[in-house]
Each structure stands twice: as structure tokens, then as C-alpha cells.
Amino acid sequence: MKIGILGAGQLARMIALAGYPLGLDFIFLDPSIDACANKLGEHLYGDYSDPALLAELAERADVVTYEFENVPADVAKFLAEHTKVYPPAKALEVAQDRWVEKNFFLGLGIPTPQFALVDSFEDLVQAMATIGWPALLKTRTQGYDGKGQSLLKSEADLKPAWELIQGFPAIVEAFVPFTREVSIIAARSVSGSVVFYPLSENLHKGGILRIAENRANDPMQTQAEDYISRLLNALDYVGVMALELFEVEGQLIANEFAPRVHNSGHWTIEGAETSQFENHLRAILDLPLGSTAAVGKAAMVNFIGGIPAIEDVMVIDNTHLHLYGKSSRKGRKVAHATVRTESAEQFEQSLRQLAKLAEQIDDS
């Protein structure tokens, strides 16, 4: 069985690593000659919209998936005419545009921060009378890891923020005074079976995820499962999905969803009975989904911009290192490590040590 993947970054790499024990083969389409997953399968080198490469991928892959949501939806639609593609193109269309996504949430009864469409500087000025301060100006498309957004604290921030996005279609969104940020990851199979992972409690800095910690038996679990179930059913979804949420006064408010495996679920490799990556493959192949039960206490720490000395990571008890095979670069996710243990005391100690290492090399 050959799995085609649009994209050959670290998420595709981890999908392939999860698939090898299942006897699966992989073929990647990616425009980067040195994409970090290309050693784990065949690499079709070129643009995602290249007709010849897409035809070859559709012919050679039994099923196609993707590792990030900025793959053109038209590409997924084209491939779906020739082979099976999961998640569906509709999920890409919704996730790629913040305006569409926010309205999709509201249509399903999922609360979001207050927001307004901004097509001009005049729109932005007028919207602030309703949205209030502080707020976030966000491009409608191409936004990830904090890119394409600016914090608005006062009227003086409006012009620089508008100039920064260079006239891109945008939304302005009320800043949410959240207690914490969480995410829920779920997998839905072709047959409609669904499993949910325990909530992840997430820490961001500069719009980039730094730490994701599993939260078994979290009081917000049921509400989060309800919200993501509405999305899965409305999109007739297949594969793994992540929904990012803010907790505000004991209620959850949706931020955004990702139609793919997600950074906040990396802890599932060591910290769950079945990782998000294996369950994604099970889902798109319509195999029985694996248990998502937590195995002890786990947390993932991202390494941004560079990697500490390997021995400094490995000396920390109960820690597992994952190198992506990517060169160091400012703001780039190049590796992560996971702490997992049954001991709460040991968990806290190891997590502190690991987080300190990450801060020392952080180049974001």
C-alpha cells in the first residue's frame, strides 16, 4: 500500500515513521529539494500544482493526504477525481480562509472571538469602534505560527499594522482574555468511527507553540469533544483534525482548526497508546482506530531555530528526542522532545529542565 503525501516536512516525516511498522510505503510531492521527509520514501520534486507530478502522484498512490493546510484546495479536488484524498478538499477550503472559517464555526454554534471583515484601511478604522482594544489584525490566508498578524493596542498601531500586511484581505478580531490555550485532536475514519485524544494545554510565544502538555480528565474535555464533533460531521471528515481553543471563564471559544496532524499532538508518540500519526493512517485507510488513552503524564517541548547538544537533552530523565533533519534557521521548528513519566514530581522536574534548554537556544 502506497500513501501519497502533499508536503515532505516534519509532519510528513512523522506520518511515514508511524507507517513503516504497518508495512506502508510513501511518496511525497514537495517543492523543496532537501525536504526532511524525502529519505523516507520517493520524492516528487516540484510545485504542488504541477499537472504532470499530480498525475503521477494520483496514479502511483493508493490514497493521498497532506501535511499542512496551505496546499491549494484545487489540487486536492483534482487529485480526488483520480484517487482517494483525505481529508476532503472542503476542509482545506474552510481552514485556509479565516473569514470563512470563523463563519463556519458560528454556523455550527461554536463560539468565536468577535471579528469583522477588513478590506481597506477605512474598514479597519470603522471596525475598531465595535471590536475595541486590544485586537488582532490577521490576514485571511497564509497565516501560521503567528505569521500575518499584528496586535493592536491603540489607534497608533493601525497604520503600521495595515502597511505590514500590504493590503492583503484581512479580518480584525477581538483579543480574548483567556485563562489558558488548549487544543483537542480527534481522528475520524472513512467508516465514521471517531476517537478523541485528551486535551493538550498549550503555551505559545510569538505565535509559535513552545510547550504542549496532555491533560487527562480535563474538565473542558467534553465541551471540546462536542465542538470538534460538529466540525468532523459537517465536513464529512476523514483523518486527524486539531481544534485550537481559548478557555474563558469556564467556557471554550474556538480559535482555529487544522485539517491535519498537529504540533500540539506530538506528545502522543510516547504519551498515548496510539499516536496521532498512526491514527491518521488508520483513519484514511479505514482501519480500526487505535486507543487514544494517555500513557502517564506527557509534554512536548519545541526546539525553535536550533538544537541543544544532544547529550544535554538525553541526560534528562524520561525524555525522548526527535530530530527533523532540518538545518537551523531563525524561527524554524527543527526538533522537539517529549517528557513522559508516571511520576508527577519527576515529570515537573524533567519538563523544567527541558524547557530551560529550549529557551537557551530559542532563535525566534
Short description:
With 364 residues, the protein is an alpha+beta fold.
Main beta sheet strand tally, sense and closure: 9 strands, antiparallel
CATH architecture of the largest domain: 2-Layer Sandwich
Number of strands: 18
* Total of domains: 3
Annotation field: number of helices: 12
Oligomer type: single chain
Q: On the 0-100 scale, what is the average pLDDT?
A: 95
Straight-line N-to-C gap: 39 Å
Within the CATH hierarchy, at the fold level, what is the topology of the largest domain? D-amino Acid Aminotransferase, Chain A, domain 1
Rg for CA atoms: 20 Å
| Low-confidence regions | none
String of helices and strands: EHEEHEHEHHEHEEHEEEEEHEEHHEHEEH
What percentage of amino acids are in beta strands? 25-35%
So, the CATH homologous superfamily of the largest domain? ATP-grasp fold, B domain
Q: What's the CATH class of the largest domain, please?
A: Alpha Beta
Pairing-aware structural class of the strands and helices? alpha+beta
- The shape is globular
Helicity, in percent? Answer: 25-40%
Helix-strand blueprint:
Elements: E1 2-6, H1 10-19, E2 25-30, E3 42-45, H2 51-60, E4 63-66, H3 73-80, E5 84-85, H4 89-95, H5 98-107, E6 115-118, H6 121-131, E7 135-139, E8 149-152, H7 158-164, E9 170-174, E10 180-188, E11 194-196, E12 199-205, E13 208-215, H8 221-234, E14 239-248, E15 251-258, H9 268-271, H10 276-284, E16 297-304, H11 310-314, E17 319-323, E18 333-341, H12 344-361
Parallel strand pairs: 1-2, 1-4, 2-3, 4-5
Antiparallel strand pairs: 6-9, 7-8, 7-9, 10-11, 10-12, 10-14, 12-13, 13-16, 14-15, 16-18, 17-18
Helix pairs in contact: 1-10, 2-3, 3-4
